[in-house]
Amino acid sequence: MVQKYQSPVRVYKHPFELIMAAYERRFPTCPLIPMFVDSDTVSEFKSEDGAIHVIERRCKLDIDAPRLLKKIAGVDYVYFVQKNSLNSRERTLHIEAHNETFSNRVIIHEHCCYTVHPENEDWTCFEQSASLDIKSFFGFESTVEKIAMKQYTSNIKKGKEIIEYYLRQLEEEGITFVPRWTPPSLGPSSETSSSSKSQALSAAVLVPDAAALKEGLNGEGLSSPGAASEPVVGTPDDKLDADYIKRYLGDLTPLQESCLIRLRQWLQETHKGKIPKDEHILRFLRARDFNIDKAREIMCQSLTWRKQHQVDYILDTWTPPQVLQDYYAGGWHHHDKDGRPLYVLRLGQMDTKGLVRALGEEALLRYVLSINEEGLRRCEENTKVFGRPISSWTCLVDLEGLNMRHLWRPGVKALLRIIEVVEANYPETLGRLLILRAPRVFPVLWTLVSPFIDDNTRRKFLIYAGNDYQGPGGLLDYIDKEIIPDFLSGECMCDVPEGGLVPKSLYRTAEELENEDLKLWTETIYQSASVFKGAPHEILIQIVDAASVITWDFDVCKGDIVFNIYHSKRSPQPPKKDSLGAHSIASPGGNNVQLIEKVWQLGRDYSTVESPLICREGESVQGSHVTRWPGFYILQWKFHSMPACAATNLPRVDDVLASLQVSSHKCKVMYYTEVIGSEDFRGSMTSLESSHSGFSQLSAATTSSSQSHSSSMISRWRFC
């Protein structure tokens, strides 16, 4: 398996030329990098004007590996070839390195680049990527991989420290400025400038070398120097800055940074700008121990779930029933000592049976989701207030009053359902759970729910029986005395409702609750359908006024499909189970509806009004069509089989979701459509915005690209 590494953009607040001068001092060997023994120049080229300087070196490394392994391999040192290309005119340095030793067994590539900061020409950016592919190594492939990764990551940390060390050394020598390169024709000073640039280049030659040689892990070897400079000089949103990561996301190891950057890059490529916030991506990575494939899979499922149920809008569009506001004994209460938002839940005082009987399971679940959404907002606010990353909250659960009434089976069932949904869609949001005054009945409840709680989450639980929370290692270790709630003998008045029994007059019948539950989760404007090989899904839209606008928004959840739009002057015979009217679509219960009759002929009974659009698994497609004639329009999703795609460095969304596919001859789509009068239509994207199209508000920003084809406009991007 190929191991990869991609660094964030590291910024030096010094001019490029001064950084090059510091970097040059790392040659021919660097005492700060003990493994870097020596280097010999293999070839060197300088342009006549001194702007271009290319040097290739053969570097000798003493890898820190077990003596037995070195003896088996028959080598004491490992050799790498490093090529540095300095362009003083463009103020860039590109470094490429690959292993010479065991090149038929192990393939290591690294690419590094120094460029001028896009927003401040007196600052310098550094970025590196690397890859490690061990084909075979005398049966020690796993051991070699671990050694390589360990040494590479340790030297990545040293890289910036070494540059800063030599910068201080230059300052001690009185060198705080190195002039920029200027063409020789501009004057005598150009020679001096050119010379200093050449020296800067040499310096750069070995820094990445040591890092690269040590163990390339993760990155794409870029063959063209120019190709690497473009991303670095992009907008701040294009790349993650190391200082930004530390300020807003926390201290991550080099490999964790690499996982975040690679997954974020994959989302940028597949979502075309519509990606979750970095904090949210990081939560899913942490939940799967930074396994990119596993994190990508659960995040894809969660984002689709959020869109389907419009969870992003829950805080703005849903008001909790008065029963919840009066009898749900939970609420936000200041923050803990780490700055995490603090949520207090008086579970022992809550009538879970009464709430379930009065509201139903789905209403309770929706309320818990709104609490989690509010928690995400509060984490962002506290990150700004406290000046450090805060990505989770603390929950304080008071169990005084818990008894067998709380073990009512439907109530426990609702609790397990809530845990399941929260675990799947809000990973790593619980920083700590303090369970206080646990009674004797608690072990019974814990036995029921603990199997449904992730191991990482369970490790965050602290359980106190009786008044143990008042002693050493208790509540005061985590919450300031001034904000301990009054019902826990604290000094702070807590606005959390006291709970109590829900009046039986508010109870509802099972039928009423079932209808209410159905209503809650069918409020989504999206409908689902299955598409089979030989059995497309079709919906009918009747247009009375020409120049109306048909808009659509759909996600391809599984398989590849072909999207078509047809027009017919006569209405097809609707299926018996589906009622179709003007501007209406097949009912969600239809699942798969076929309208075009077998006896119909294309060109005679109906015609194509748009070119077929092939949509890949995982894509989200938006678009519109301005109708030219009245009559009946048929939107069709048809099964499409595609040849296997060429291998890529990172799988597409369809590759990720393929593992979930039960049948290779079945596709699934989730769609929404609307007809708008031409006078009300302000563009394909605006029309969809007016109908509250559910795009994730976890995204820092949503952008869309559109293309015009005849009378229609279509935009598409990947959506997990």
Automatic annotation (TrEMBL):
A molecular function GO annotation: RIG-I binding
SUPFAM superfamilies assigned to the protein according to its UniProt record, in alphabetical order: CRAL/TRIO domain, CRAL/TRIO N-terminal domain, Supernatant protein factor (SPF), C-terminal domain
Q: Which PROSITE patterns match?
A: CRAL_TRIO, GOLD, PRELI_MSF1
Gene3D superfamilies hit by this protein: CRAL-TRIO lipid binding domain, GOLD domain
Q: Residues in domain PRELI/MSF1?
A: 3-175
An annotated GO cellular component of this protein is: Golgi apparatus
Q: Where is the CRAL-TRIO domain?
A: 320-496
Alphabetical list of InterPro entries matching this protein: CRAL-TRIO_dom (IPR001251), CRAL-TRIO_dom_sf (IPR036865), CRAL/TRIO_N_dom (IPR011074), CRAL/TRIO_N_dom_sf (IPR036273), GOLD_dom (IPR009038), GOLD_dom_sf (IPR036598), PRELI/MSF1_dom (IPR006797), SEC14/CRAL-TRIO_domain (IPR051064)
Q: List, for all copies, the residue spans of the domain called GOLD.
A: 522-675
Coiled-coil annotation: which residues? none
Q: Name one GO biological process term.
A: choline transport
Q: Do you know which PANTHER family this protein is assigned to?
A: SEC14 RELATED PROTEIN, SEC14-LIKE PROTEIN 1
Q: What is this protein called?
A: SEC14-like lipid binding 1
Query: What species does this protein belong to?
Result: Cricetulus griseus
What gene makes this protein?
A: Sec14l1
